[in-house]
Design goal:
The chain is of the alpha/beta class. It contains 13 helices and eleven strands. The radius of gyration is 28 Å and the shape is elongated.
Length: 375
């Protein structure tokens, strides 16, 4: 999300961060409270409400994070913003039951808190709904208890709305995935989420609920993004390296000059190259960054003076998803594709890979770019 977050503390190895706008919201709320009632006591209670609400949201997020941990999935951090909390998991499991458990754990935490408070109110013989005339009447321990009860019930219900990025969206997708293909399940969940987003937006405009309006726009986009993500992952898993590799690639030798290499780059559009020795064996690579460096500094003449030794080989049958991780994690610019009898039959570099991915997400822009390159 946009802008800076500040780390508050770390529990169970997960940093809890506060988005700057959340701090701004708190200050605004406290200011409005003071302006309307001129009471330090009221401001104190308001601050207490905010801290408690904040804790309930944090506990909700820990519900997700700790359940994910049980499945071996780490949580990068938990971010709190005015439109809600977010536990950023490093992965979302594909097994429906795991996704379901992780998603429902958050709302269940709020339900558990609500149940605990309801029992407390009942045991103490207090009224569940205190009779109050204005919000000021809530500034006492009984009012506090009922407010926390209401807030947690609201968090429970709100998060179960079946629309991404709300937990209900994930729960819905997980349930649909039991019977449907994951891509189809996500598409259906996206449509349902978007219909709800339109409904929420209309209601928000009608009732002047600005936070709800922001959330509905967010739901619309997140639903689409979630679907695009799953679609991309599916395509990456079902396309192999040989489907998109460059078969007719330029070979570079140790005495190729960078002058020639830059010309090749201009005519063929290839960004990264394999370096061959005299015996026609691959001994290294010239990544695009090296060429750019020579263009800028003009300090070397031939490839022998500036190349990266060693090369990574992959088989043509490798799924792109696997190669994608390899390229990301190890910073590989180009791989040599080897046939079963050990011959190099093609190359695949970051550039070609990302062009292919862009084309998936936006076919028209890919075509425009292809044509504009040929000009
Ligand atoms: Zn949640």
């Amino acid at each position: 999300m946009l802008g800076k977050s500040y780390k508050l503390a770390t529990f169970a190895g997960i940093p809890v961060k506060l988005h700057w706008s959340f701090g701004l919201l708190v200050i605004t709320l406290l200011f409005l409270e003071y302006r309307d009632h001129q009471s330090i006591y009221g401001v104190g209670f308001m601050a207490l409400y905010i801290i408690i609400l904040f804790l309930c949201v944090v506990l909700h997020e820990y519900g997700h994070a700790l359940t994910a941990k049980r499945y071996g999935i780490k949580t990068r951090d938990i971010i709190l913003s005015p439109i809600g909390g977010l536990a950023r998991l490093e992965d979302i499991p594909e097994a429906p039951i795991k996704e379901f458990n992780i998603a429902i754990a958050g709302p269940l935490v709020n339900l558990a808190i609500a149940a605990g408070i309801a029992i407390l109110i009942y045991l103490r013989g207090l009224p569940f709904i205190p009779d109050f005339v204005s919000i000021v009447d809530l500034y006492n321990p009984t009012g506090l208890l009922s407010l926390v009860l209401v807030v947690n019930l609201a968090l429970f219900v709100f998060n179960l709305i079946p629309a991404f990025p709300m937990d209900g969206g994930r729960i819905l997708r997980a349930l649909l995935s039991i019977k449907l293909d994951r891509v189809v399940a996500t598409r259906v969940a996206m449509y349902i989420g978007r219909i709800l987003a339109v409904g929420m937006f209309v209601f928000a405009i009608y009732s002047w609920g600005m936070v709800l309006a922001v959330i509905s726009v967010f739901v619309w986009y997140t639903s689409g993004a979630e679907y695009q993500n799953i679609l991309l992952k599916h395509k990456l898993n079902n396309t192999s390296v040989s489907d998109i590799m460059l078969k007719d690639f330029s070979k570079v030798t140790l005495d190729t000059t960078f002058h020639n290499l830059i010309n090749t780059f201009k005519t063929t559009g290839e960004n990264n190259y394999l370096v061959y020795n005299d015996e026609d064996k691959v001994i290294g690579t010239v990544p695009y960054a090296y060429i750019a460096d020579v263009v800028q500094r003009r300090h070397v003449e031939t490839v022998s003076q500036q190349y990266k030794s060693g090369v990574q080989y992959v088989s043509g049958q490798t799924p792109l998803l696997q190669l994608f991780d390899q390229m990301q994690n190890e910073g590989v610019a180009i791989v040599a594709v080897r046939s079963n009898d050990g011959e190099v039959v093609g190359v695949l570099d970051r550039h070609r890979f990302s062009d292919w991915m862009k084309q998936l997400q936006n076919p028209t822009s890919f075509i425009t770019r292809l044509f504009s390159k040929r000009k």
